[in-house]
Design goal:
seven-stranded mixed β-sheet, alpha/beta
Length: 481
């Protein structure tokens, strides 16, 4: 995919005219931008709390004013319609402000997970052609300023780096100064059909794929959840999922923009703290992977926690054990839903418009869909997709590896873990799991993708043509499937 300095130069998404007309007639597409929808909601619920982060509470009116000021600062940098603005930020209030400011300008938000390091970050920024990047100075174990300094020579389109909650160094902008700009009314409204979001998949088939969403498609998604989850303005969501992941964007930005709900931000998952927030903030629902559900339901403080407000856990992103659903619903006293929506954008659509996800399933006599497996070569660990192919390509570069296959094996906590199966190169020292981890991180891979298990084999089970049979390999290692 060539670098696209401005998304306005990229081909527009193609919709069948009948579908587009139907979306408009049925009210899913209303000809409004994200900012239009948000501004209308602000007019209805000005003083209501939009965001909670720790002890800080931000009203809808204050959030709108903060976004207007930041939009003015970005406008002063020359950011306008179609420009790509990347954000590699944690679950902070500033992240939501930045996403709204980008929408206000009709620019394109390009969210990047904070755990990404040199390899993933460099690939995404290079592909997106981002002109501006928001980063924390340091976050957890990473110096993001040093990371981007190391990459910047490879990113000719990147003109501005904005540092949040830390001081700016030479060649950088400090968020506070940029967000203190005077608001300007001289801003053309965003086109509802224009691209608002460029978000990259987890790389289920090697390199990540850039998915384009318009204002219309994003708002339609938020509106569809009103009926699905019976959302009302008094709902409050607990949001531990990254705000730079589609789940965080939908439930901490888009749903509040449409319905006036409140989002409680949690930067680091800790189930005890999550339960405390449910009681303190009267949280009504949460969306997350099965690991979050299990952690809440099995936490030792659950019995003494106030979860009387909690009515719904929407669970997806990985295989969901029916027993976990039943037991967790009983312990938490809420409805637990299994949701389904894979995001693979390869293989596109069938001739009659159906999307090929690569997942396998069966429909029972009652019409219920049961997911039974997948054709995609990925590992789903704690709701995150990890590309087996990406790991294999990097591990194959290790001098002690003659051949490698990476498979997912079941795990009661994570759902799946990544197992690297190696055929060692003769005459070399046998590699250890620590050796592989060092090799992969040296090649810029984030630690969240590192394999948890290593197996050495003399040879692999193969097809007649010599292709490795991963299903047989899983069976040998007790993984089934």
């Amino acid at each position: 995919m060539p670098t696209i300095p401005r998304v306005t130069t990229a081909p527009a998404p193609t919709y069948r005219p009948a579908e587009a007309d139907r979306y408009r007639v049925e009210g899913w597409w209303r000809g409004e931008s994200i900012w239009d929808a948000f501004a209308a909601t602000v007019g209805r619920v000005r003083t209501k709390t939009a965001l909670v982060e720790g002890e800080a509470r931000t009203s809808f009116a204050a959030l709108a004013a903060m976004a207007e000021r930041l939009a003015g600062g970005l406008q002063g940098l020359g950011v306008g319609s179609g420009d790509v603005v990347a954000l590699q930020l944690p679950n902070w209030t500033e992240t939501v402000v930045a996403l709204l400011a980008v929408a206000r300008l009709g620019a394109v938000a390009n969210p990047v997970l904070p755990v990404y390091r040199r390899r993933e970050l460099g690939f995404i920024l290079g592909e997106s052609g981002a002109r501006v990047l928001f980063i924390p100075g340091r976050h957890r174990d990473c110096d993001h300023r040093a990371l981007i300094r190391d990459l910047r020579a490879e990113l000719p389109a990147l003109e501005h780096v904005v540092v949040v909650r830390d001081g700016a160094l030479a060649g950088e902008h400090e968020y506070g100064a940029l967000a203190g700009s005077e608001s300007s009314a001289d801003r053309a409204p965003a086109n509802a059909d224009a691209i608002a979001l460029l978000i990259y998949t987890s790389g289920t088939t090697a390199d990540a794929k850039g998915v384009l969403h318009s204002h219309e498609t994003l708002l339609a998604e938020a509106r569809s959840l009103g009926a699905v989850h019976e959302l009302v303005p008094t709902d409050t969501v607990l949001m531990p999922s990254p705000l730079t992941h589609i789940s965080g964007i939908v439930h901490a930005l888009l749903v509040p923009a449409v319905y006036g709900t409140t989002a409680v931000l949690l930067d680091r998952w800790e189930p005890g703290e999550a339960l405390a927030l449910v009681g303190r903030e009267r949280v009504t629902y949460m969306v997350g992977a099965p690991t979050f559900l299990r952690d809440l339901a099995e936490h030792p403080t659950l019995a003494s926690s106030d979860t009387s407000s909690f009515r719904l856990f929407s669970c997806g992103g990985a295989a969901v054990d029916p027993t976990l659903v039943r037991e967790s619903a009983a312990r938490l006293g809420c409805v637990v839903k299994r949701v389904y929506g894979p995001a693979l954008n390869a293989e596109a659509f069938t001739p009659d418009g159906w999307f090929r996800t690569g997942d396998l399933g069966a429909v029972d006599a009652a019409g219920a869909l049961r997911i039974t497996g997948r054709r995609k070569d990925i590992i789903i660990r704690k709701g995150e997709n990890i590309s087996a192919r990406e790991l294999e390509e990097l591990i194959a570069m290790h001098p002690a590896v003659a051949e490698v296959a990476v498979i997912g094996l079941p795990d009661t906590v994570a759902g799946e873990v990544a197992c690297a199966v190696l055929r060692p190169r003769p005459g070399t020292s046998l590699p250890t799991l620590a050796d592989l981890a060092a090799h992969l991180t040296d090649h810029g891979l984030s630690r969240r993708k590192l394999p948890e298990r290593l197996e050495l084999v003399a040879d692999f089970p193969r097809t007649a043509s010599g292709k490795i049979l991963k299903r047989a390999l899983r069976e040998q290692l007790g993984g089934g499937r």
